[in-house]
Amino acid sequence: MYAEEGSEFAGDGRPADTRESQRKGYATWGSRVLASVIDSLLLLPFQVLIGVVGEHESSSSPYSGTPDGAAVASMLLVLGALGVCVWNVIVKQGRTGQTVGKEALKIRLVQESTGRPIGPGVVFVRQLAHILDVVSCYVGYLWPLWDAKRQTFADKVMRTVVVKA
């Protein structure tokens, strides 16, 4: 039996698992990881093309000191990939709460207190705050597995949550 919403007891009189019931509105760790994988796949065409151009560059004549077409193409591809990242992670997620990956998995990044998207500037700072998840030997990225609000360390610092959309 399931506990009624707001009830501390399951239908049969046993205490409800309140910790798990508190976690129901938050996105699972797996959905967050899969959303990141989907977002990474957006860069795959750029990576393939950079590899093709780089392979062509390395098999051609020695470096002459001036950039040729392949070097310019590689630089434009890198800038294109950076542009896609900024648009998807900073701008789109800041305005809507969703990257392409989060949208596909129907999850959303929001301010914990308001439930609204946090804006591009705060998303940028949140991305910088992910250094906390890294310097903890990546434990911060695993923290949502057992945290009641399924937050990373960066989420805790920025007071954000990822919820089911």
Automatic annotation (TrEMBL):
GO cellular component: plasma membrane
Keyword Iron-sulfur: no
InterPro entries hit by this protein: Pra-immunoreactive (IPR051791), RDD (IPR010432)
Main location: membrane
A Pfam family the protein falls into: RDD
Domain RDD: 26-158
Membrane topology note: Multi-pass membrane protein
Region (Disordered): 1-22
Protein origin, superkingdom: Bacteria
Segments forming a coiled coil: none
UniProt keywords, alphabetically: Cell membrane, Membrane, Transmembrane, Transmembrane helix
Location(s) in or outside the cell: Cell membrane
Positions of transmembrane segments: 29-50, 70-90
PANTHER family given in the database record: PROLINE-RICH ANTIGEN HOMOLOG (PTHR36115:SF6), PROLINE-RICH ANTIGEN HOMOLOG-RELATED (PTHR36115)
Name of this chain's protein: RDD domain-containing protein
Organism, scientific name: Segniliparus rugosus (strain ATCC BAA-974 / DSM 45345 / CCUG 50838 / CIP 108380 / JCM 13579 / CDC 945)
